[in-house]
Every structure is written in C-alpha cells, then in structure tokens.
Amino acid sequence: xxxxxxxxxxxxxxxxxxxxxxxxxxxxxxxxxxxxxxxxxxxxxxxxxxxxxxxxxxxxxxxxxxxxxxxxxxxxxxxxxxxxxxxxxxxxxxxxxxxxxxxxxxxxxxxxxxxxxxxxxxxxxxxxxxxxxxxxxxxxxxxxxxxxxxxxxxxxxxxxxxxxxxxxxxxxxxxxxxxxxxxxxxxxxxxxxxxxxxxxxxxxxxxxxxxxxxxxxxxxxxxxxxxxxxxxxxxxxxxxxxxxxxxxxxxxxxxxxxxxxxxxxxxxxxxxxxxxxxxxxxxxxxxxxxxxxxxxxxxxxxxxxxxxxxxxxxxxxxxxxxxxxxxxxxxxxxxxxxxxxxxxxxxxxxxxxxxxxxxxxxxxxxxxxxxxxxxxxxxxxxxxxxxxxxxxxxxxxxxxxxxxxxxxxxxxxxxxxxxxxxxxxxxxxxxxxxxxxxxxxxxxxxxxxxxxxxxxxxxxxxxxxxxxxxxxxxxxxxxxxxxxxxxxxxxxxxxxxxxxxxxxxxxxxxxxxxxxxxxxxxxxxxxxxxxxxxxxxxxxxxxxxxxxxxxxxxxxxxxxxxxxxxxxxxxxxxxxxxxxxxxxxxxxxxxxxxxxxxxxxxxxxxxxxxxxxxxxxxxxxxxxxxxxxxxxxxxxxxxxxxxxxxxxxxxxxxxxxxxxxxxxxxxxxxxxxxxxxxxxxxxxxxxxxxxxxxxxxxxxxxxxxxxxxxxxxxxxxxxxxxxxxxxxxxxxxxxxxxxxxxxxxxxxxxxxxxxxxxxxxxxxxxxxxxxxxxxxxxxxxxxxxxxxxxxxxxxxxxxxxxxxxxxxxxxxxxxxxxxxxxxxxxxxxxxxxxxxxxxxxxxxxxxxxxxxxxxxxxxxxxxxxxxxxxxxxxxxxxxxxxxxxxxxxxxxxxxxxxxxxxxxxxxxxxxxxxxxxxxxxxxxxxxxxxxxxxxxxxxxxxxxxxxxxxxxxxxxxxxxxxxxxxxxxxxxxxxxxxxxxxxxxxxxxxxxxxxxxxxxxxxxxx
Length: 1006
What we know:
Layout (H helix, E strand, L loop, with lengths): L3 E13 L1 H7 L2 H21 L2 E7 L2 E6 L8 H27 L4 E13 L12 H12 L5 E4 H7 L3 E9 L8 E9 L18 H17 L2 E7 L6 H11 L5 E6 L10 H9 L2 H9 L5 H11 L9 H15 L5 E6 L6 H13 L5 E7 L2 H5 L9 E5 L5 H12 L6 H11 L3 H12 L9 H12 L3 H13 L2 E3 H6 L9 H10 L3 E4 L2 E7 L2 H9 L3 H18 L8 H17 L5 H23 L3 H14 L5 H16 L3 H18 L2 H18 L4 H18 L3 H18 L2 H17 L3 H17 L4 H13 L5 H17 L3 H18 L2 H18 L3 H18 L3 H17 L2 H14 L5 H17 L3 H16 L4 H17 L3 H18 L2 H11 L5
Parallel strand pairs: 4-5, 8-11, 8-12, 9-10, 10-11
Antiparallel strand pairs: 1-3, 1-4, 2-3, 5-7, 6-7, 13-15, 14-15
Helix pairs in contact: 2-3, 8-9, 9-10, 10-11, 11-12, 14-16, 15-16, 17-21, 18-20, 18-21, 22-23, 23-24, 24-25, 24-26, 25-26, 26-27, 26-28, 27-28, 28-29, 28-30, 29-30, 30-31, 31-32, 32-33, 32-34, 33-34, 34-35, 34-36, 35-36, 36-37, 36-38, 37-38, 38-39, 38-40, 39-40, 40-41, 40-42, 41-42, 42-43, 43-44
C-alpha cells in the first residue's frame, strides 16, 4: 500500500446518550435508527468532500483531505459539522413521529499531519495524533456541541463563530488540549482574512494597464475580458479592488465568486451578481423598455435557479449578454469574476461568449484566476478580445512597504522582518499570514497553516509521477541539478524525467537556472517545503542516504567542499530513522559518517571565523557521534570556543567541562591540557574573581607537561593564558613578553589561526602598554598587514588603531576604523567582540572627543548585551567606564549605580575596573558635595594604577584625583597631580588627554 504524509482534518460524530436508547428500542428498531443516522450523516460529510473512513460503535469518523487535499479542508469539515446538526434535527422530526425518540450528537474536529494509505482494501488507514485528539474532543463535547482543536481554529477563524472552552485534560495527551466551541459559520466568508482595505503596494504598472483597457472599452463601447493570473495570495483581489475603487465615479461594478465545491454552483457568480443588482425586481427594472425584456428576464432568472423553467445553454448565454448590454446602456460596467480556476466549463464558455458577442456596450470583464486555469483551458488567453496579465512577486522594497503597514497592527523586529521577506519571496498573502502567526506567538521559521494548506492542495492535484519528481527534488534542496533527481528515481522512470521537469516548470512550480540547462530551482521555498512534507519519513531517510551517497561519489575530488551538504543528508537519514525507532547498526554507521563530515565542516567554518556556522555544525556533529569518539573529543573544545565568541557563555562552560572530562577519560593528555587551558581562559570572562591565581597556577603547571609532550600548539595556548594574568594586573610589558613566547610556539606549530590571534593580542598590548602612540600605530599597521587573511584579527587591530588615532585627536579616522570593526563582527556573528571590544573602543573614542552622551550610548549598549550573555569580566570594565562617562555627562546618580555594579562584578585583581570605578565614584561624590568621602577613593584609584604600566590609566586616575582635590579647595596638591597626569599622557603620546591635563593646570601644551 502506497502511503503519504498529509495535513488533514479529522471529524468524529457520535450519538449522545445512546445507551438509554438501546434499552427503550427493540434491536430491529435500534438498527433502523442507527442506519438512518449513519446514512444522513454520511450524505452531509461526503457532500462537503469528507471521506467516511469508518464507523465505530455509534460514531462516524470522516477525514477531509483524503483522497484529495483542498486548501479549505478544515472549513469544509466545520461547515459539514454544523450541517450535521441541521440534518439531525430533520431526522429527529421523523424519528419522533415514527418511534417517539430523539437522538443527540457530539462532534469533535482536529487538524494535523497524518499518514494515510491509498485506499487499497477499501480504507485509507489514517493514523496519527490528530485522529486521537479529534476523538477525545468529541468525547469531551456536550450534547449538540462541536469542539475543534487549536490547529483547526487557526484555519477557520475568519469564517467561524467560536467561543473558547476551558482547557481539556484528555486521555493520551501529556498536556492540556485547547478546545473551541463552534457557534456557527459565516456564510460565504473565506477561511482566512485578506487586508483588501490596506493601501495598495506596488502594481502601479498593472493598474495603469487596466485603466487604459477600461478607457478603450468606454470610448469604443466595446467588451473586453481581462484575466489576472497569479498564485494564491499574489494580490489579484487587492488589485481588482483598487481598480474598482478608482473607477467608482466612472463605472458601475458588480462581482461574483466561483466556489470550490457544492451543488448547483455552476452559475453561482451570476447568483451573486444578480443579487447585487436587486434580484428579480432589479433585473426587470434594468431590462424595462428593452426588446424582449420579459424573455431575457425569464432566461436569466432560470439560469440562477429563481424559476423552475429550464433554459437551453445558448438562450441563457444570449440572455446574460442582453442583461449586461442593458446594464451598460447608461454607464460603463465592470464585472468581476473571482476564482475562475474553480469555474465549471459552462461558465468559462459563457465568459468567452460575452467577450466575443457583446456589442455597443462598454463592459469590462475582469477575471481572477490561479495558473491552474491555464493548465485546464490552454487557449484561454488567446481568444479574441481577451488580455492576460500575469502578476509576479512584489520586490523586496515593496515588501518592506507592506511590512511597514502590517507593523502598525503587529509590531515586528528586524529579524522577523528579514525572515518574512526571505520566506515570502514577494507574495503579500504569505507576508500577512506569517506576520499574523508571529502575532499569535508562532515561530518565524514555521509555515503558516493557511499557506501550507494552499500549497499542499496545489501539489496534491499534480499527476502522481510529477508529484514524485517534485518530492525527490525537494530532498535535493531548493536548487538542484537534474542528475540528482535522476539518482533518486528508479531506472525505469529516468527516460521521462525531462518531460516531467518541463511540465513542472510550465506549471510555475520549478524554474530552470539561467545558463545551466541541467539546473533547476523551486519557484518558491515554501513549495519545496510543502512537497517535502508529503514524503513519509521512512522514504525520506532512504532518499537522503541515496542523495548523500551520490553526492560523495560524484564529487570525490572536492569532497571537502561538500562536507556540510553530504553530512546534512546523512544526518537527516539518521534523524528520520531515529524518529521511527530504527536505532540499528546501519543508523549508527550513518551517524558516525554524518558526524565526521559535519565536524570537518565546522572546523573549516571556525577557521574562516564564521562562528554561528561553526556552532551549528560542531553541535550537530557532537550530537551524532558517540561519547568516546575521537572526532567528537576533538570537536568539543572548538565548539566551546565558538560558543564563547558568539556570546553563549553558559553553553560554552558546559561544553568545555564535558570536553575536559572526555579527554581525561580517553587518556589523551595533550587534548586534556589544551582543553584545560581553553576552559580557564573562558572562565576569566564568567568567573573573574577566582581566575587570576588559577590562571597562573594552570599556566605554569601545564607548560612543563606540554614541553614533555612536545606540543607546540599547546605551549602557545599556555603562554597566551599566562599573559592573561598580566593583562588583568595591568602589566602590559610582561603581557607582551608572554605573548611573544606564545607566538614563537604558534609559528613552530604552523597554526596560522593561532599565530593571527596572538598577533591581534600583541596589538592590544601596544595600545594599553607604555609604547608611544605614533610607534604603536606604526607597529599595529605592520601587524595588520601580516594577517591579511584573518578578518576577525584585522577587526580587532582596527579597534586598537581606532583608539590610538583618537588619542591623536583624529576622530574621523578613529570612528571609521571602529565602524569597520563593528561591521566585521556583525557579519561574522561575533556577539562578544561586538559587545565587548567594539563598544569599549567606541565609548573611549567619544570620551576623548568630548561627547560623553555618545560614549554613554556606546558603552551602555555593550554592557546590556554582555549582561544578556551572562559575561562578567569585560562587563565589569564597561560598567566602570560607563560610570566615568556618566560623571562627565553630569548624571551622578547613574554614575554611582554603575560604579557599584563594577565594584560587585570586578575581580579583586582586575586592576582596570577596580581603579576606574573608584575614580568615577570619587568624582560623583565630589560633585554632589562629599569631597571627604571622595578623596580616599580617588587616592586608592591612583595607587592601583601606579602598580601598572598602563600610562593612560595612571594619567586618568591622577587627573580625577586632582579634580576631587580642586573641589575640596586643595589647589596646590591638585596642580601637582595634574602635572603628573600630563607627564603620563606625554610619555604615552596621548595628545588629547595631555591637552586636557594641561588645561587643568591652566597651561597650554607646547
């Protein structure tokens, strides 16, 4: 039996309180009652497109979406459910008269993904959780109630009157089930609402063309048929509404809509049009005085079922034409026929007849259709007096305008807007439905159920062989080559592949890639997703494995470039096997293959500084591989480092601890020592208070062990870690010496990544250490040139150069460099670097530039981001400098608050924040009238700075102390300290701060 996955709506209807009925009636009478009940219920369900799957006791189960999917299956099911109550009322009238009994009904509906057979053996064998939930909802319903689940509600909310029921606790579900009671269905309402009253976005060219056609129709008193063709949601109805609105003073407009199913619906649009004209009285009034008025009216009313007389088709066509001609006698008429892809052939014949035979009457027939129409009616757009207009997707700019409109109702952040723009690919309905789903708390990655229903129904109408091609292509990806899809088909089917691909392209589901005759892409990513969703998971696993085998075999010469792609397909094969419970040796072998490929791809992503990709790939790899797999043990430390760089500090600590334990258990001493160093470096950011002594202990204890192992890369990391203790203590010359030793080992290890990283750290030491600014700039530029291929390190050096140029008063150059660094951090997804390094550099530049407000903005932004990450080390420093900026801005209360935050979070041995928060608080206290409390703090700050070779820190704390003393009236001591500050800045070559110190002395810098 062929099976498929599909989203359907399941309906259970049961006789309420049937047990007492069995006690009252003879078995023969009871059988008669139940037979009539089943017969009436089945008639209703099948009329609305449901498939009666089975009878269970007194209950009937029907499925909407089998054997054929419809975009409105959920609404059909709800309409059927409400009609069941009406049918039961009529049956009860009969049973009351015949047997003196009445029966009640309970109904439950639920929508979701099921697996269904092809009908072999007489039943579809529908299985899945939606079936169980629908049954539980029916059981929870009161007599006469229709309860539906949340998924169904989302699909019918615009057309059904609903009231929420209390959350239900039902058998077999771990959590509560949300239920809604159906009060009624709104006649003629579509399942989902469209924003037809919103301002029109784009389509000015199409609107102009329609206006020109209308002008010709009006001037020549002729009839013309225009068909707007495009997929669901592309904007056909909105464009038609805009046209009729703009023509309201020039023409009379009437409209009708074709229905997808029902009895007697061939001329339903005419029923709506004539109803809008005033029904029978309106028709006779329009025809008053016309030749054959009574005959025309009789034929028209017969066509719409208002009279019992039957009218031959040709006479009915003639009568409708005469009605429209009379309607247009005094003014032009626009007649809108919506959804003519659902029209019966007879109605389409009528429209062609009207276009060809209407004369001396300005009538514009505006038809709206999906591309399905052209598949059924090949010559539709080539008939005389017809024009076809194919509506394409909106541009990204137009989508942005639409999102601006939508955001007034449903606020959207930048990430959501970007995701919607990417996924919608120019379709306005997709934009609206995705925004609405987000407003209800849905995921930005999910397909809205309304859109999934539209696309799945469209694909379900394809011939089986074309749908199979589309499903195989969906496994290959949004873009694919013909040979890949061929590989996923049986040999006997390959000869037909080109014809099927061409047919799918004609149906606007696929499109050939320009310049590549063997390459195709899905016209829309959501089409690919819908096609993929229809493949049973067992088959998905097989197809992914076959694709991976083919890709690896075909591209053996450049396998490294395809590691991520091939690894992904093996991973999916494993994923679906696991979901189906197939945890056998083959699944384990596939997992090892997938994990090793993804680990290699993650390593390359790490090397090119694409940290979000590295996290993604390495995390997937370590999940697939066994706990003691050597590849996994090597990947874990790199994953921890990547997590740190992306700002996920809590996961980084867990991963690095796991890596350390794994390396120790495996007896890999080299890996264990490297991982220990990596974790300790990481903890300087998350647990700075206990890190300084531990840094020295670990570095000095691991160096001799690494020397014994002849591990040059490990030694580079150990000396780098040792230098961190010097950086925390403000000993920048010592830091430089340790980094120089680390660089020697990194070069011996021939590890360009490690070499570049250490070079970047050396550049930072040049700025904070005693090297004069001009010399530091020269050396930083040389260092930058030596790491041309490492954009992350170049960004770090650019941040350093930005600070150095700001010291010379070259603020434009400084800001440009800082912005270049920020852009790189953003592009690479380096959240920590953006928040910590960039914010500190930009804040420092603005402080030197005399713009404390701008400095506060930059520093506060970085501080907030680091707080969200759970980082403490750099955050304590930013808090201290933020307090300093707030003092200069005159916001002393906030300055006190951030100085307290820095005091609470900074490690005791971390000299920079310890000195800066004291200096900032001293200044705030002095400015608010407490110079006595300020002086000890300012003196402590100076003392801390004097123990370093950080000349800028020395100068700033001295200048801050001088300011406190000046406010206390101790001008002589203040002058002495200001001079010492000026000398410190002079030694560093910091011209801006030297000038500031000189100004405090009342002197000018020569």
